[in-house]
Input
Amino acid sequence: MGESLLELLQKSCPITLPMHMPGHKRNLRLAPYLNALAAQLDITEIKGFDHLHAASGILQEAMDSAAEVFGARNTFFLVNGSTVGILSAIRAVTAPGDSIIMARNCHKSVYNALALNNLRPYFIYPQTNLRYQIAASISLESVQNAIAQHQDARVLVITCPTYEGVISDLPAIVSHAHRHGLTVIVDEAHGSHLGFTPYFPKSAIAAGADIVIHSLHKTLPSLTQTALAHVRTPALASEMQRQLAVFETTSPSFLLLASIDGCVRLLRERGEELFANWEQAMEAFHQKALGLHHLRVLGYGRERGLALENVHGLEPSKVFVSTINTNISGYELAELLRNDHSTEPEMITPQGVLCMTGMGDTVETMEQLGDSLLAIDRRLRPASAVKIPLMAPQVQSKVPIATAERAPFISLPIEDSEGYVMAETIVVYPPGIPVVVPGELMNLQAIRYLLAAREAHNTILRSRSDIDGQVAVLRDA
Ligand SMILES: Cc1ncc(COP(=O)(O)O)c(C=O)c1O
Output
């Protein structure tokens, strides 16, 4: 037998600078409750410990306290990540067969909710930013158009912020959707730290969204899988509670629940000071980033204050380092960070690397990241030719998802699939956004994107085909 998971964790965890989730960054001085969580405390619901799905005691008090801290009407603790919050939220506000308007760059859990509830999606594509070759904001105009064209839709789902930290004009989007009677769900998985200080943008809760989902673990000091769902009305809270009882485990880990409670208490008791420290750490990084000549960092260094095409705003906890202007790719930058600087990034794309910061970061960790980037930058040259943009593709839908995902299929090599209608969802992880979904027409842009992801050894998840390098397309389309 090979080494155990525990041995691997003990060996590999401490040696790298973690520029990825979880947000506590293994900073145990910041969050002593995390150090204390161990098997001797690992219980689920036993007498005296309340019931997550019918809370009335200590768990209800803790969730009420979280609602107060986050400014929500009701808050639910989640132990299956944002994923369970998203599945439950969508089920809570739709009936089978309903239509919903959703951003095409939503996480795969939103697509799974479509399939589970037999929903008909109308997609809004985010705008694009060519300087960084990333998905930009969802425009108010695109939401207005979608609502005008699809009057049968009663629900809007969008992701804000994106993985790279791009935000959309949520106050305007939410109030327009509300004026037209839509319920708004915001997947704010990457933004549970928003709204506590002016340094970070306001949260979707403040924008009036009806249901907001937070992965606490992504940026705040809490164990992996811990998340929150916030709802705006008592009626929504009752429905959300019913759906969480369907999708979430009946054996919630009290280690995870204690971590959520600890995190909320930390925010309540020391939030101001800790957010000020985080801001200081990011500003220390900014000072370093000013010295970069070839690498560009979204929102930092010389890029700060630049008017960015199609970007409504940025939230500053994300450090997206672009290699577009250089002689290396995002994959090569990640290798240099890993091998020469013991730094593990969160996400790697052909055109850059996402380093994710969290409340557990400090001036020291952010200066270390800045110094590493400066050392790499000194060895780079400008790109010798303009790099061909490689962005998430726009594809056309031909057949409803619900029909295509169950229809007979054949498998084809990715390279030969142009013009075929997809019979499966293909997701590149991270960021976990489907590149194509069932019923969509495979095009060259999507093929190029998938081949680049494969070359970079990114994880490619397919929902139906099981032959390496092949994809499932409709047999009869
Ligand atoms: C935008 C977005 N939403 C939801 C999720 C799911 O979150 P979790 O892993 O906490 O279930 C992710 C995970 O990467 C995500 O990126």
